[in-house]
Write a structure and sequence with these properties.
Elements: H1 7-36, H2 38-59, H3 62-75, H4 79-106, H5 108-114, H6 121-127, H7 129-146, H8 151-177, H9 182-209, H10 219-224, H11 230-270, H12 272-313, H13 317-344, H14 346-353, H15 358-372, H16 374-390, H17 394-416, H18 425-449, H19 455-479, H20 481-485, H21 490-507, H22 513-518
Helix pairs in contact: 1-2, 1-8, 1-12, 2-4, 2-6, 2-7, 2-9, 2-11, 2-12, 3-4, 3-7, 3-11, 3-12, 4-7, 4-11, 5-6, 6-9, 7-8, 7-9, 8-9, 11-12, 11-17, 12-13, 12-15, 12-16, 13-15, 13-16, 13-19, 14-15, 15-18, 16-17, 16-18, 17-18, 19-21
Length: 523
Amino acid sequence: MSKKQGFMVGAMILSLSGFLVKLIGAVFKIPLTNLVGTEAMGYFNSAYSIYVFLLSLATSGIPTGIAAMVSRSIALRQFRDVKNMVRMAFVLFVIFGLVISGAGILFAPQLAELMNSADAYYCVVSIMPAIFFMSIVSVFRGFFQGHNNMTPTAISNIIEAVVKMAAGLGIAYFLSWKGYPPAQVVGGAISGITLGTALSALFMVFRYLFRSETYRLSLGEFVRETPTPKKKLLQQFFLIAFPVMISSVTSNLMSAVDAFFVVNRMKTYLGVEMANFNWGCYGSMALTIFNLPSFLIIAIGTSLVPSISSAFALRQQRQIRSSLDTAIKFSSILAFGCAFGLNAVAENSLYLFYPRLPESVQVATPLLEIVSFALISVGLTNVTASILQAVGKAYLSVVSVAVGAAIKTVFTYVLVGIPELNIHGAPIATNIAYPVMLILNLLFIRKYLHYSPKWGQVLFKPLVAALGCFGAVKGFTALFPSLSAARFGVFPLILVGGIVYVVLLFFLKCINICEIRKIFRKN
């Protein structure tokens, strides 16, 4: 079998690609927002919320389920099961993805109306075929991730993002030049996502077909092994994948709930135009910046699954505990640093990307400041859910997500309905729901794995360092107001905050050089 990457090495690869993807995504959405305006980007957000929800229905659970099955089969030296699993998953989910895409196109007008944005129809139609292509991508991502090889996933992500940006912006500027209305311009732009997923799928197919011999079954292994019956394989796969799918669908439903309730509630006292404007400030501006650092923590969870699954199959308790300690600790360090750092530079970040929309920046700044703290619970919830999925307890993460979704729905509905809060109710609801989900996941891990994090290392020390980072950024802003207020002033602020945060982490003995070296060793 192929030589494995350590799971933190895999996480670093995904993080690097994730940074590029998020950066490209921002480059895509930011000039598009400047071109069509915040209100038209509300159509983009509504269509994208529908897409993400249907995509989670069609593909979520596939990479995780296949990765867990593949890594477990490799650990137990059942290599024929790997081949059979990938073949069955490909047939089942590509067909399912095609059906979901077709249904999305057929019912596009109704879906747009459901989101209170009839003009979002053009966006919905343009993005629905991407679900089919992502079904193909998901199967092969699971195969390579199961071998602890995150590089194909990273490359496919970058291909998708680059094509999305180039094609999407190219189409948008062409339609705008031709005089088409903003709703159709943004619909043309979102078709870039479909083109990106198509080329990403093509890459993954060729990467799988021309994979090296280390990924292939030898003749001796084929003759020697008795494969697991295909029916049993599918049952084992769905025990992992189905709860992940339900969890993802429920989680993404929260985004759809935001898109539905936020506009619907605000239009009763602000009017439709202002409601879409506020939703665009939050969805297209604040959340775009919020998502930039989130990939760092999510990558750890994605890379963790095959490592934990393999160790769990071999009952390697010491390896499991070591992986859990490393994953949760470094996730917490990243989460606290990103949350307090982003809060400190919220206005500067928005001004950097949206210099032509000062009014929108003023609305989006407090929204980003509020939602930035959710990076802590969102990141750690993702990692703890990945742990549960890796050890066959994925159904428990469904419970926490369902509870969180219910809490977020109720609080979004109530808080956004208060005129004094209006759009601010959405990020507040996020900060209420995700900590509950995190606490539930930690309780499940303690009950079934008999594991509790070292709270001083996971919470107290990163919090102290993050407060120091926040204070350093605010102090630098006060000392050098003209530099900080410049459009590119966010970069020295990030540099100062980052240096102070890392120095404090070492000073508090939260991390050390030997520990950093250790995480890059091969598994």
